[in-house]
Amino acid sequence: MGTPDPSGTIPTNQPSVQKSDDAAGFYTLGAPLIDEKAPTGPINTRWQRRKFENRLVNPANRRKLDIIIVGTGLAGGAAAATLGEAGYNVKSFCYQDSPRRAHSIAAQGGINAAKNYKEDGDSVERLFYDTVKGGDYRSRESNVYRLAEVSANIIDQCVAQGVPFAREYGGLLDNRSFGGVQVSRTFYARGQTGQQLLIGAYQAMERQVAAGTVTQYTRHEMLEVIVADGRARGIVTRDMVTGAVETHLADVVVIASGGYGNVFFLSTNAMGSNVTAAWRAHRKGAYMANPCYTQIHPTCIPVTGDHQSKLTLMSESLRNDGRIWVPKNAEDCAKDPRDIPEEDRDYYLERIYPSFGNLVPRDIASRQAKNMCDEGRGVGPAVKEIQPDGTEQMVRRGVYLDFADAIARMGQKAVETKYGNLFDMYARITGENPYETPMRIYPAVHYVMGGLWVDYHLQTNITGLFCSGEANFSDHGANRLGASALMQGLADGYFVLPNTIREYLADGPFEKIDESHPAVVEAKAEVEERIAKFLSIQGERSADSFHKQLGQIMWEYCGMERTEEGLKTAIGLIRDLKKEFWTNLKVLGTADSLNQSLEKAGRTIDFIELGELMCIDALNRRESCGGHFRGESQTEDGEALRHDDEFAYVAAWEFGGEDANPILHKEDLIYTAIEMKQRSYK
Amino acid sequence: MNLTLNIWRQANATAAGAMHRYELAGVSEDMSFLEMLDVLNEQLNANGEEPVAFDSDCREGICGMCGLMINGQAHGPEVTTTCQLHMRSFKDGDEITVEPWRADPFPVVKDLVVDRSAFDRMIQNGGFISANTGSAPDAHAAPVEKKLADLAFDVATCIGCGACVAACPNGSASLFLGAKITHLGSLPQGQPERDTRVVSMVGQHDAEGFGGCTNIGECAAACPKEIPLDVISRLNKDLRTAMAKGY
């Protein structure tokens, strides 16, 4: 161990050596993995030097190069716009009816950038440091440094596009502090930052559609990647309106299809958010990295019944003034909270963590809420939960977030100014007035840090297949800081990918392949067979019912707290579910028309397979880090305990074949510019 | 609660559609309108009838993907998106009519799903500020008066759902158009293309077959984001100014 080294040559840590082997029997150990594109030398010039080293593509040749981009969120839309502007021939795909609907649109809080407009000591180095630390030292330092470095350019670009960020009276941009950091580096557009940034990227992309450099394919779902002669050369899609299975060929393929939080069925993701593009690539050989890293957000509106289709997030800022409690006695749980006297309330976060109280980090707040409800002290409507043995149980899943003290202290008016829009949203969804009765909250899955493994160039281990945004694993380690998702999506799309993909395309155009190439024929046939299979089973259960059951298994055993026993149970349950899916699925309608049940079937089975891999990854990682909490690895106070000596590595999983064990490749995380430390919140 | 639903079913763009009647029991007031349709679809699937196709994605009122005519009102009786409408706005025994957006430029794809690609084509025709990636000056190079920045934001909250068109007796998209013209036209960055933008976007609006605005105001009343009617005045003013300059 050593102190940080500015020359970037002397490591501060040793490669880890895993001693435990909880997942023995569930995986095969493969060769270690090295990022061959990893830069070296002083960290603050790595990206600059790499941009120079990466070859250029002659402008006259660009129009001869075809680029496929799957997904039109910040990462995909921004890349389509930028690569189109550069003169490449871009084909952009999304499953929605318009590129403007991608789920980046729902991000509320803001976007970080190391502008230091507040002169409060912020810098690229500080944003870099905060992000690596926030990720619990499970991300690559070179990638994170680059992210911090390009963050300032993102704001410039967005302002030039007309993104209406919040401004001060002098006309300059306003910033706020976000997610517990001590500098104000977050740019925002009221509670709709994601929407405004996405519309900016969308408009830039539509401009290229008009210019003829980008062709957009809406209501198209990518169902397979075509790998020919060792390179990704295209995709197979289904036109969701006509049902036509089409092949699209190109020189390079980019997957920017977002995260897979919907593996839990209930999450804050959009209904259509899915893992299919990434999972199909995984099955074709792309490694899936750290799939178990899931971020769970503590302040969401609780489930009201088994009709629930999604969960809605409310800004974490509510915890600044609200007090979280549950009744001391389970028999009070059904009572009107206003009738429960002070002495019968348990302000459990204030009790357990007296110094941080209600402001403990997301994962701790989430885990404790679950513990209270597991003890039978949850509040709100009791909802049906299916136990592993198949029996049903009614459980109240909610805790109070009470503003009575804040209203008494600051006055209703002040509370309204600060949180009015959140209170309105809560009232609309629940039908309750949070000024009069305490809000009810419960944690929900919000973001996944895992994703396809990529090198420093955002290229997966399949040559010519790139991956950006939430769909890749690279920048957030085991936990993502607030206002960093938008930053990463746009960094990848506007500034990183366009500068790395040219190094790959400098060797192109690659030999033309056509529809008759065996790899194309085979990929298309696979898709057609799968679709036919879904329709032919004619069993009893809808795709949604399988998806819901998967979600319950994942939430129970691979959610806020994971244990060896629970994860092994989950793997067994998921395997049974998969068998049942293939024998008891019921999809009505036809393949050659708009068929939403058919779409769901394809996504659900990919989620089921992913769910199994997530559990195996979580089982292997016998440590707690960031969003991954293993019951076996905690301090006496119940805090997460990392094991850097065993697990300071990226777990990159290779598909092992149908019903065969996945293969684990470890990429060591070696730091030079930063030194690993344990966190503490007491 | 128990409900009777009259739902428009149409197999595809060219097939003839018809209203179908469904009885749905045990609806909870905590369900969103779309969750109620999910429950109906599970019931239909179990009974061997193909589920009703409808669009939705974020289900938190921001993506603009959902949109139904509910008892003749775009997004139903509340000022919000269909996904944020909850069943507590209805009562036991209600009969609810559910149709797709009604407007020629939004042809039905299937059941309650329509094709709104006309909106994308309007944006392609000038609904942007031309600023290639990497060409931007520092974000603080040009301060923007707070009042204008706030105005730009207020109208930029348009989610492109199409309720304005569905609600308009003329099938006009003037509110959608006016919101974009006002958003980009209020900002200093948007000035260089202000005249060409409005002429080009209005041209595409008309070419798509959207109707003209006769100041009825149904659009603003139906808008879930409460975009005000006066964006249409700004649209008209900008168009007049541009035409007077010979664009």
From TrEMBL, chain A:
Residues 9-18 have a biased composition (Polar residues). InterPro entries: FAD-dep_OxRdtase_2_FAD-bd, FAD/NAD-bd_sf, Fum_R/Succ_DH_flav-like_C_sf, Fum_Rdtase/Succ_DH_flav-like_C, SdhA/FrdA/AprA, Succ_DH/Fum_Rdt_flav_su, Succ_DH/fumarate_Rdtase_cat_sf. Residues 1-21 are annotated as: Disordered. Residues 547-681 form the Fumarate reductase/succinate dehydrogenase flavoprotein-like C-terminal domain. Residues 66-486 form the FAD-dependent oxidoreductase 2 FAD-binding domain. It comes from the Bacteria. Gene3D superfamilies: FAD/NAD(P)-binding domain, Fumarate reductase/succinate dehydrogenase flavoprotein-like, C-terminal domain, Succinate dehydrogenase/fumarate reductase flavoprotein, catalytic domain. Keywords: Flavoprotein, Oxidoreductase. PANTHER family: SUCCINATE DEHYDROGENASE 2 FLAVOPROTEIN SUBUNIT, SUCCINATE DEHYDROGENASE FLAVOPROTEIN SUBUNIT. This is Succinate dehydrogenase flavoprotein subunit. The gene is sdhA.
